[in-house]
């Protein structure tokens, strides 16, 4: 089974476990019914934007959506998860090849990603992506042009980095004659804790 097929089967299982229809998950996540259907059937590899939106729609972290259930109850204070070369969950999309590292940790506050950037122009990339949280990216090899919704494009060389608000439309494209290699850390969208959902007590 390919990674896309495995992720699709997991997404279908999680959706049905919550008794959600395709249209129900589409309403909660903002991802089109046709896109969800293709992902579940293993014919479409979802971008990070789509993965995060689907996780949020299912009220899960990205680790819980793509990771391993066995570590669900691991205490956050006992985290120690080395990642070796070749480890991780690989998702190959039109613009990026993502390698999600330490995917077995399901309740992470950060999402570490080793990626190869395939798109070489904004026209080739398509619409800007946006999702909850923030992200930090450092270029490991090649050159990257960072396009964003509100700022002029910025070119980054090897060893250079950028920190940005992921809710702002953004895209990374390779500027050189080969695919750029980057490392990115994304934070999960902020979620309200149960205690935060209650109305604060009023002074007497």
TrEMBL record:
UniProt cross-references to InterPro entries, sorted A to Z: Cro/C1-type_HTH, Cupin_2, Lambda_DNA-bd_dom_sf, RmlC-like_jellyroll, RmlC_Cupin_sf, TransReg_Diox_bact_type
GO cellular component: cytosol
GO molecular function: DNA binding; DNA-binding transcription factor activity
PROSITE patterns for the chain: HTH_CROC1
Keyword field contains DNA-binding: yes
Domain HTH cro/C1-type: 11-65
Keywords: DNA-binding
Keyword DNA-binding recorded: yes
Pfam families, alphabetized: Cupin_2, HTH_31
Domain of life: Bacteria
Name of the protein described by the UniProt record: Helix-turn-helix domain-containing protein
Organism for this UniProt entry: Aquicoccus porphyridii
Lineage: Bacteria, Pseudomonadati, Pseudomonadota, Alphaproteobacteria, Rhodobacterales
